[in-house]
Structures are given as structure tokens and as C-alpha cells.
Amino acid sequence: MFIVIDGPDGSGKSTLSEALAGQLRAQGHSVLHTFEPTDTTETSREIRRYLHCGDSVDPRVLCDLFTKDRAEHVSSVILPHLAQGGVVICDRYKYSAFVYQSSQGVDRDYVIRSNAAFPVPDVTFVLLPSSADVLMRRIARRGKAEEAFERSGFLTRAIEVYRHLPDYFPNEKFVFLDADLPTEQNLSLIEPHLS
Known about the structure:
With 195 residues, the protein is of the alpha/beta class. Helices cover 53% and strands 13% of the residues.
């Protein structure tokens, strides 16, 4: 089974995906918990340089870098684990690329076409908060330098695009979760969609 947990920065994706991975392992499943962008390729290192340093880069170039990193991730990590009958939980996937790059002005059809060859998850859980203020408070608590996409105005636009993912990917399964809820409560809401 291929599961994606997505949502804007600060929505709790990493916490929820780690908790879900632990729960499924406890049930006896072989679980691979992974994330995008990856941290193992030169492409991913280039992406992170742009995100952390605030260097200006054409959004379409960044979109292409994310696509290249995803292609390597899918072929070398995700597909091999799925082929062995395991469960893959991916923290971010092509939906983040769609939301973030289209919010930067990249043509939405271009982003969709760039990601069309990648496997479709069995289910994608999207964490959405009541407002960008919730995200900004969580990001501030991390105590790390702010990344390029971690600004209130941008996050507000991103939330709105996330809400409309089913319009752009009509044949894919999305389940929306409330990012304001505790992780344990969202785990209980996820469970019925995994059978």
C-alpha cells in the first residue's frame, strides 16, 4: 500500500506520518517511512540550498528539480519497497509540488504533466489547519531559520490550493484531516481508509 501524508508547512505531516508508521509496524507490517524532497541526492541538496538560502530561482527550474528528485525517489526507494509487498508512507509527494510551484506561478498543467508518470498513491491524507496563523506558530516553535515557503501570505494561498486538489486530480483518493486536531485523533480517522 502506498500512503501519502501531505499538507502545508507546519501542519503536522511528519509527526502524523511517523506515528502512522509506528502503528502499522506494531501491527506487523513492513513499513518504509520516507519523505520529499529526499536528502540523499545531489538534486535534493540543490533544492535545500535554494529553500534555506533564499537564493532567487525561477519557479519552473525549482519545479523541475523537485520532479527529478521525485523520479529518483520513486525508482530507487518507493517502487522497490512496494514490489516486496511493503507499505510506503511518504511525507509529501507530487501534491506539494503542485501546490507550491503553482502558487509561485508555474502553470498548473505543466506541473501535472511533469508528475503524470509517477505512481498514484492508494490514499493521500491532507492535513489542513483552520488558518495560516496555526502554521506560523508551529513553524516559529521549531526555532529554525524560516524557509522560502514559510511565510503567512504564501501559506494562506497554499491552503486554498490544497483544498482543491480533488479538482485537479479527480481520479485520486484524498482524505482531508484537521491539522488542529491531536495526532492521536487523526490516526483514528485514518484507520478506516486503510482497509
